[in-house]
Design goal:
The termini are far apart. Strand 6 and strand 7 form a beta hairpin. The chain has three domains: about 5-90, no CATH class; about 130-240, Beta Barrel (Butyryl-CoA Dehydrogenase, subunit A, domain 2), CATH 2.40.110.10; about 255-370, no CATH class. A four-stranded mixed beta sheet has the order 1-4-5-8. Strands 2-3-7-6 form a four-stranded antiparallel beta sheet, with no helix packed on it. It has helices at about 5-10, 15-30, 40-55, 75-85, 95-105, 110-120, 235-250, 260-275, 280-310, 315-340, 355-360, 375-385, and strands spanning about 125-130, 145-150, 155-165, 170-175, 190-195, 200-205, 215-225, 230. It has twelve helices and eight strands. By secondary structure, the protein is of the alpha+beta class. Residues about 1-10 have low confidence and may be disordered. The structure holds flavin-adenine dinucleotide. Flavin-adenine dinucleotide binds near residues 371, 372 and 390.
């Protein structure tokens, strides 16, 4: 199945009565099956997806034979519109569903889709993304983890870092080097990896808020079946680029059902409660935030509309991603103005602090995860605005000869 062909082919104008009936079904389901943000956790994410799947509301545009609902992109739009009125109920599945699912659907073999998609869509399995390494973050193509073919199996060795939710994941998509004699952007392949396989060691990274959402992942002679290769051998860079675009859309265009201002809403509530709303500077900052969030929603809707028209997401996804990061920084500045030190410090008896504390701390990662702000600006400059490309001196040299990562001696 290809996103651009088959998924577009199932799309079409939805008769007004059918659209209304479907909207009513979504509304009734969400009314009965949502929890306030503070009560949403990983177990509820899974339960929500199981219930969505049972109601024919999971994997809306994916074929029924692969566990989806087999509906159109018009249905998907309605579902997103209705969901955007509630706190995210399945937030920990953003990588699973926003990135790994479209990748396997687009590039996986039929056997891979049959084996993995139904459980992934229904939330029975969680997936993670293993790209970054200690010496390969912004420049992922410098990755050194490798896979060697041994009979009917690939043997993987190396290390990844910052792997979100690796400790809860059942599977992951990993990019590793399969031919170091090729230049760095070639000679990379993508594989499906069983996170519970012998030789996979997951070490949590401890965060300042007491949580532990991402990890170091070590591979020590991890053996995976030959047919868990995604796409062709040594074409992993093209797949990685495609997955990064899905990532930027997932992060920057989440929801994307209608124009919303979720962080503005939460801060207005706080400012009203503690009287800060009387301060003209605060009101001015809040209006700036309102405008930024409204604009981001509209950019996100345009990105989703492109996808609805059958286009694979392009570099424009970086706009939403960058804007999300700017909004998070703006949110932090206003939260500090409204709540003072209470926005970032909390009583040590309260584990992890309040939702406000976590959002303020979380704002620091928004300009790093999924590609830094500088990288998004490079992408927008080069591929959206058509500015000259950044000079690259290592694109014609075999990877083996490059001084990257631990290859510096
Ligand atoms: C919360 C969080 C979750 C993450 N989850 C995952 C995950 O699930 N899977 C995964 O694979 N990775 C994950 N990452 C890793 C993330 O993708 C990288 O941290 C990110 O790409 C930056 O890489 P780096 O940390 O190595 O920084 P570096 O690449 O070393 O960058 C350091 C600084 O240099 C700047 N810089 C680098 N190159 C350029 C350039 N060409 N032009 C201008 N400036 C440049 C950067 O903008 C940055 O300010 C996560 C990161 C975070 C913070």
């Amino acid at each position: 199945m290809s996103n651009t062909t088959e998924r577009a082919a199932v799309d079409g104008a939805l008769a007004p009565d059918d659209a209304e009936a479907f909207r009513a079904k979504c509304q009734a389901f969400l009314q009965d099956n949502h929890r306030p943000a503070a009560d949403v956790n990983f177990e509820w994410n899974k339960e929500f997806l199981a219930r969505s799947s049972g109601a024919g509301l999971a994997g809306i545009t994916y074929p029924r034979e692969f566990g989806g609902a087999g509906l159109t992109l018009a249905h998907d739009k309605i579902w997103r519109e209705e969901k955007s009125g509630y706190a995210a109920q399945d937030g920990e599945f953003i990588i699973s569903h926003g990135m790994c699912l479209p990748m396997l659907a687009e590039y996986g073999t039929d056997a891979q889709r049959q084996q993995f998609l139904p459980d992934m869509i229904a939330g029975r399995t969680l997936w993670c993304q293993m790209f970054s390494e200690p010496g390969a973050g912004s420049d992922v193509a410098s990755l050194q983890s490798k896979a060697d073919l041994d009979g009917d199996e690939w043997v993987i060795n190396g290390q990844k870092v910052w792997t979100t939710l690796a400790h809860k994941s059942d599977y992951g998509l990993v990019v590793v080097r399969t031919d170091p004699d090729q230049v760095k952007h070639r000679g990379i392949s993508m594989f499906i990896l069983d996170m519970k396989a012998p030789g996979v060691e997951i070490r949590p990274i401890h965060q300042i808020d007491g949580g532990s959402h991402f990890n170091e992942v070590f591979f020590n002679d991890v053996r995976i079946p030959k047919d868990w290769l995604v796409g062709e051998t040594n074409t992993g860079w093209r797949l990685a680029t495609s997955m990064l675009m899905y990532e930027r859309v997932a992060i920057g265009s989440g929801g994307a059902g209608k124009v919303t201002q979720p962080t503005f809403d939460s801060l207005v509530e706080l400012a009203r409660a503690n009287g800060a709303i009387e301060n003209a500077v605060v009101r001015d900052q809040l209006m700036q935030l309102y405008c930024m969030e409204s604009t981001k929603s509209m950019v996100a809707m345009r990105t989703r509309a492109d996808m609805k028209a059958g286009k694979t997401p392009g570099p424009g996804g970086s706009l939403g991603k960058l804007m999300g990061s700017n909004i998070a920084w703006c949110y932090r500045a206003i939260a500090l103005e409204i709540a003072g030190v209470g926005s970032i410090a909390w009583d040590s008896t309260v584990s992890g602090g309040s939702l406000l504390n976590r959002q303020v701390l979380n704002s620091f990662q928004s300009g790093i995860a999924g590609g830094t702000d500088e990288i998004q600006r490079n992408i927008i400059g080069e591929r959206v605005l058509g500015l000259p490309r950044e000079p690259a001196v290592d694109t014609m040299v075999p990877f083996r000869e490059l001084k990257v990562g631990t290859q510096r001696s």
